[in-house]
Structure formats: structure tokens, C-alpha cells
């Protein structure tokens, strides 16, 4: 060690500077190799470890349109298709769910009850012979039909929407009966009078199975028909005013959502 120290002390100043410079460069190279190895290792882990993305579930309109094209409009209660029930009419609207890899999901519907509509949900498919017309964002007419039980074994064509908060269990509605309203607040006695006692209604259909691509001819979307049903006749008695639809009643708000089933 003393010989090494004597040798270093006898070096000229220029040689000592060169020695320290070489020592610093060598140390820097060793450090750089270590850092590069660390980054390379973690980059390799990143490329080998795939992050599992959560499954996606999206609402959409009919055909290939986005949900922004789904509209409940042009409802004239004097028109519409005639139901098998007395004084009953209906109109159908097409929307879809993009389930991705989700096998089962729930559809939730919440709506105000100013207008006495009933809401029904059916599975549907694109069908050139169908009688349910959807006009696309490109102004093309696509026809749909309701899927029957025979086409999907073990699955009802009508989806069971369970109402969670109806005031009147017999009608499944939240509008109060006429005799429960304070005097002078009869429903729509004076034309377009809002029923301030009506409450929103919440319904849910659980564990809806993803449609088979062979059935609905789409590997990406499950199609549904939201059917609005109402009672109508030209002349109404006072007791029928809240149970029958008229065109001068207030607008309703309808909210539809879909979520993965937890069951």
C-alpha cells in the first residue's frame, strides 16, 4: 500500500488529473450499466404483465347508432298501434346494449309519471320482414321484430321489469288516486296542470343473458324494444282523466341504464 501511495505522490500533477478523470468515467460507466439493467428489467416486466381491463357495458341506439340518437319523440296519443286490450295503444322504440364480454346484465328504467304510460321491454332483432321501424342517423329505415321464445330457447320475449316503488300495486303506477288529492287539485281538471304529487317510478330487469350472435345477427349488440303503452279514447269522464293519456299533459323524463349483473 505504501508503494502505491509513493507511486501516486511521485506522479506529475497532469498525470494525477488524468488518473482522477479516468476513475470518475469508470465509476460513471458502472453506475450507468446498473441503471440500464434496472430499467430493462422493469420494462420487461411491463411487457410481460398484461393489465386486466374491466369489462365494458354500453348503451346504444338502434342499428349501429350511438345512444345520442335514441329519442322518445313524436308521440301522439291519438295515434299509435292498437293493442289487444280495450282502449289501449302503443309505440315501439329500438335501443341496444353492447355487452362486450359480460354474460349477464341488468337494465334499469326510471321515469316520471305525469303521463300514464306503461313501459314494457322486449328482446328484438333486425328483420327485413319486421314491423318495428328504426330510422338511422343516415336516414335509412331498418326494421326490427320482437324475438320469440321459440327463437331463443328458455328466454321469454318480454323482459320482466319489476317495479320497486309503485303506490298502487294493482296498477303499478305512482300517481295517487283522485280521492287522495286535496280539494281543488284534481289531476288535469284545468287542462295542462302538473300533478305535483306524482313520484318517479323505478323498475329493473335482472340477469338478462347476452344474446347469441346467431339469433340477433350481431356479435356486438343486443337489441331491445322499449314499448310505451297508454289508454286513449275521445271522451273522458272525470274519474278517467288520470288513467288515460291526452296530448296536453306535461312531458315525462325517462332514464335507462345498464349494469353488469352481480348475481
Written account of the structure:
With about 260 residues, this protein is an alpha+beta fold. About 20% of the residues lie in helices and about 30% in strands. It has 3 helices and 12 strands, in the order H-H-E-E-E-E-E-E-E-E-E-E-H-E-E. Strands 1, 2, 3, 5, 6, 7, 8 and 11 form an 8-stranded antiparallel β-sheet that branches. A 4-stranded antiparallel β-sheet has the order 9-10-4-12, with no helix packed on it. A hairpin with a 5-residue loop joins strand 6 and strand 7. The radius of gyration is 34 Å and the shape is globular. The termini are far apart. About 0% of the residues have low confidence.
Q: What are the main properties of this structure?
A:
eight-stranded antiparallel β-sheet; 18% helix; 28% strand
Helix content, binned percent: 10-25%
Q: How do the helices and strands follow one another from N- to C-terminus? A: HHEEEEEEEEEEHEE
Which spans of ≥5 residues are poorly predicted at pLDDT below 50? 174-178
What is the CA-CA span between the terminal residues? 77 Å
Q: Return the average pLDDT rounded to an integer.
A: 74
Estimated share of beta-strand residues: 25-35%
Overall radius of gyration: 34 Å
User: If helices are DSSP runs of H or I spanning 4 or more residues, what is the number of helices?
Assistant: 3
Number of extended strands: 12
Largest sheet: 8 strands, antiparallel
Secondary structural class: alpha+beta
Shape, per Cα inertia axes: globular
Amino acid at each position: 500500500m505504501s508503494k502505491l501511495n509513493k507511486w501516486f505522490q511521485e506522479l506529475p500533477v497532469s498525470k494525477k488529473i488524468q488518473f482522477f478523470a479516468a476513475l470518475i468515467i469508470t465509476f460513471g460507466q458502472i453506475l450507468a450499466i446498473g441503471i440500464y439493467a434496472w430499467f430493462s428489467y422493469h420494462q420487461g416486466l411491463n411487457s410481460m404483465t398484461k393489465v386486466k381491463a374491466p369489462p365494458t357495458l354500453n348503451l346504444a341506439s338502434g342499428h349501429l347508432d350511438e345512444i345520442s340518437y335514441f329519442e322518445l319523440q313524436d308521440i301522439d296519443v291519438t295515434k299509435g298501434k292498437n293493442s289487444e286490450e280495450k282502449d289501449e295503444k302503443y309505440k315501439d322504440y329500438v335501443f341496444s346494449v353492447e355487452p362486450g364480454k359480460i354474460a349477464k346484465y341488468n337494465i334499469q328504467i326510471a321515469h316520471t309519471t305525469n303521463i300514464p304510460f306503461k313501459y314494457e321491454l322486449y328482446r328484438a332483432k333486425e328483420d327485413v320482414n319486421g314491423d318495428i321501424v328504426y330510422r338511422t342517423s343516415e336516414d335509412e329505415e331498418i326494421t326490427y321484430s320482437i324475438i320469440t321464445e321459440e327463437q331463443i330457447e328458455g328466454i321469454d320475449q318480454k323482459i320482466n321489469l319489476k317495479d320497486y316503488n309503485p303506490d298502487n300495486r294493482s296498477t303499478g303506477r305512482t300517481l295517487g288516486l283522485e280521492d287522495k288529492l286535496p280539494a281543488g287539485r284534481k289531476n288535469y281538471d284545468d287542462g295542462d296542470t302538473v300533478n305535483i304529487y306524482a313520484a318517479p317510478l323505478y323498475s329493473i330487469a335482472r340477469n338478462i343473458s347476452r344474446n347469441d350472435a346467431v339469433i340477433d345477427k350481431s356479435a356486438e349488440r343486443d337489441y331491445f324494444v322499449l314499448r310505451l303503452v297508454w289508454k286513449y279514447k275521445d271522451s273522458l269522464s272525470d274519474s278517467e282523466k288520470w288513467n288515460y293519456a291526452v296530448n296536453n299533459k306535461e312531458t315525462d323524463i325517462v332514464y335507462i341504464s345498464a349494469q353488469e349483473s352481480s348475481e
